[in-house]
TrEMBL record:
A Pfam match: GT87
Organism: Actinoplanes auranticolor
Membrane-spanning ranges: 29-48, 115-139, 196-214, 220-241, 248-268, 321-339, 346-367, 387-409, 421-439
InterPro entries: GT87
Cellular location(s): Cell membrane
Keyword field: Cell membrane, Membrane, Transferase, Transmembrane, Transmembrane helix
Protein name per Swiss-Prot or TrEMBL: Glycosyl transferase
Domain of life: Bacteria
Lipid bilayer topology: Multi-pass membrane protein
A GO cellular component entry from the record: plasma membrane
Annotated family: Belongs to the glycosyltransferase 87 family.
One GO MF term: hexosyltransferase activity
Amino acid sequence: MPAVEEVLDERGLPAAAVPAPARRRRSDLGALTSYLALAVLVLIQLWIDPAGRVLSHNDDDHGFFAFAMAHGERVLFHGANPLFSDRMNVPGGVNMMANTSELALSVPMAPVTHWLGVGVTVVLLLTLGLAGTAFAWYWVLSRHLVESRRAAWIGGLWCGFAPAMVSHANGHINFVSQFVVPFIVWQVLRLREPGRAVRGGVVLGLLVVLQVFINEEVLLFTALTLGAFVIAYAALAWAEVKGYWRRFVAGLGVGVVTAVVPLAYPLWFQFTGPQSYSGQPFEPGKFVTDLLSLGAYARQSLAGNAAIARELSVSPTEENTFYGVPLLVLLVVSLVLVWRNLAARAAAIAGLVLLIMSMGPELRVGGYDTGIPLPFALIAHVPVIDLVSVTRFAMVTTTIIGLLLALAADRVPTLSRRRQTAFWVGLALAIVPVLPKPLPVVTADPLPPFIAQQMWRDYVSEGRTLVTVPLPEVTTGRAGMRWFALSGLDYAVPRGYFMGPADPPLNNTGSWNAAPRRTSDLLRVAGAYGRMPVVTVSDRMAARNDLSYWRAAVVVLVPGTPHHDLLETILTDLLGKAPQQVGGVQLWDVRDIVRPSG
């Protein structure tokens, strides 16, 4: 009888006798299942009631992406223009290409939105985004970069569930859906192989097209990182690179041509079409990475401290570093283990470059701007770069850390037993504290019968709008935005939360608000500060003009809104009539006093 029993698989066969493809499928299924389970755990509180709960850290973007998913449903089921929506910000509309509309996700998911509701689509895409990104990196790592499935799993786990990804899961479907990126990266790297220029270039171009319709910002990060990687690798190994750089460049050229053909019109529409804009509504130095955040923990990490994270981040959705000191130590160890790998060194250089870029034009430490200039100041106002929230460049560094961890873990079996043990203990100490907690949610007020039972149809005909007060804007009017999205955009609304020109044609700088109108400003200030304005004849005339501009049919005061009674008094004075009580809301029927313009 042997001294050591053979390890048997579930069929009773020795593990060594199990065919390699079967072992690979088992490993793949295990990786996918584990990633899905963790993603569900992160979103579990939203899964409990997708339509009745809102992500508490980012209810504004939660509302916008619900609108984007509802737009995708209208594209498939109603034949709406995929590049433009006339349902929000009436009469100007919304340039969907100039916003993160995620048409590559919203349109395929339209049947889910149509039959199960926009709330289910949002939480499903957030879940699949986290798990899909992790599994995509696992797939590429396990097939092409590492031998060990365990190493690939570790790399995928970090790439899909690092603090940066979990923080963006607070509503940012576009940033957690990075499952195309690993394949773009791999296709670019394969262009150096003989005979890959045409076939590989075409595949690369099609992947780029797909990523554009998921998120262009992530594509920009990927392109910048690959550029930094290629330059670094060429500098480290020019003797090797000069043997294939021509076919590499030829493949890139094929990829560019392949992508440009289907993207030419959508990109033209994005940058020159109606409601297009240039620049962001903030200076590049506003949202940057704080140096001390590298050693801290994010608020949604197991070891996270909300007070510390709040001081070191620009918002709960932008905790793009927050690695913790143990992970930084492990990263140094990993770099030592893989130092002989030129590609790993070049990747580390690229990650460092993007990390420095994420720190903006001057170094910030502990919440204070030090005045120490950084290289990003030289390119801060370059077109396209000026459209980026700077701290997000650090998401690249986060991904590269995952790749370096996978490469190091793959190298561990060659070490002595003691060093292997030290590495795995160090990995546990580094990874466990940053594992995610479930994202917090708040319970939203139920839809009033006026919306839920579609009583609004008796008032709002095609070509007219339903005006909710507070008006939907960035940080205000969230209930009205939610009503609109959950209704499937069946009625149209003025204003809203989106990116568009600040005050066209005088000012085309990007803004989160629709162009200013006198009535919206009056109501916004009164609602924010609870102060009764002196309503003049001029204000009443402006209200009629603005309601005509918005093509209003009915004005609805959101129940339970702050300073509700004050807003009711102001609206009654502006409109010259008392409200009606219909379907759980107070409303003013304005069809008899305003005439839609245009």
